[in-house]
Amino acid sequence: MIDLGSAPPSNAYLTNKTLHMPEKWFPLRVLVCEGCWLVQTEDFAQENELFNEEYAYFSSFSSSWLQHAKQYVNGMVSRFHLDESSHVVEVAANDGYLLQYVKGCNIPCTGIEPTASTANAARKIGIPIVEEFFGVKLAKKLVEQGKQADLTVANNVLAHVPDINDFVSGFAILLKPNGVSTFEFPHLLKLITGNQFDTIYHEHFSYLSLIALETIFSKNGLQIFDVEECSTHGGSLRLFTQRSDAVVHAVTDRVSEMHKREMDAGINKSEFYKGLQKKVDLVKYDLLSFLIKAKEDGKKVVAYGAAAKGNTLLNYSGVRPDLVEYVVDRNPAKQDKYMPGSRIKIKDEQCLMNDKPDYVLILPWNLRSEITQQLDYIKEWNGKFIVSIPAIDVF
Prior knowledge:
With about 400 residues, this protein is an alpha/beta fold. α4 (about 115-125) links the parallel β5 and β6 (about 130). The strands form 3 sheets. Strands 6-5-4-7-8-11-10 form a 7-stranded mixed beta sheet. Strands 14-13-12-15-16-17 form a 6-stranded mixed beta sheet. It has a 4-stranded antiparallel beta sheet with strand order 1-2-3-9. The model has no long low-confidence stretch (mean pLDDT about 95). α5 runs parallel beside α6. The protein has helices at about 45-50, 65-80, 100-105, 115-125, 135-145, 165-175, 190-195, 210-220, 255-265, 275-295, 310-315, 350-355, 370-375; strands at about 1-5, 25-30, 40, 90, 110, 130, 150-155, 175-185, 205, 220-230, 235-245, 300-305, 325-330, 345, 360, 385, 395. The longest helix has 21 residues, at about 275-295.
């Protein structure tokens, strides 16, 4: 589908010590299976190289994502009649961003989170955490411990697992007979049509469509009975599934409607994937042209949001500190570190206020509205924002 050259893992932020050491770079190529239409990154890095004790992505630093999680919990409690006798399990619980709302409803919950940094953050707010990678083995262990689930949650993790069959099978084992598993993930259809190539990085092993997941789920003991569209991450799908051997919920029309929409778009045809490279290269050239012109004009450009997607954009475009002086991020775990590959320093927001740059390049463009509101004060010195996905926009 696309070749983005090579890059280091997108969440492998550098410290002052590792800045003086070589980085591991891996080819970043994405391939399409013409049998089942699953789209996957060519594997060169193992999950323990990508998700380790230094993992620095904390979900709770986005207010819009917290609101999304809260609305989800309220909706699930109401729809599936969850109460104090229920058990909710979230896989990839991160820092407790979602389960805090489950706990707030007095519903017993368990988080599965393999990265120590985020797991510890969740524990600090009282969320019980199992610090392991999820799959069939862990699911069986939890069942033996009497921890079967009425609801399992898997937000933005399905793309992150190298063995997607083992992962999905685990949910079929962990669910009670009348239980429900929901999966939320960026929609491949939106990636292609919206030129969202910066969501491609090594931590994302898969790029997902309903069509591909219908095959995967059916082979691993789950049936999709509903689908919703979410605005998060540039356009996501939320799939509702149940055990194939214990069908409780009727399949809604939305499943067949989404299936038809993907088929009509051509997701099951090779031609659908062939135009992405040219569109991506145009973004790269336009961004470089803008940054070089700004440099020639003596303008200061900084970036906001040390997001993994930002690292894909910066590294594929060849942007370095001579063109973008630093990146601002609210997460203290990232501050005073350096972006992998580009080695651009990450600073706190006070630096932006002090320096009054001419332009702020928003790297997590999916949070454009939230960030422009948060940084509205840059207009006081006539500062402007830039986003480059799906095309460059200065405003």
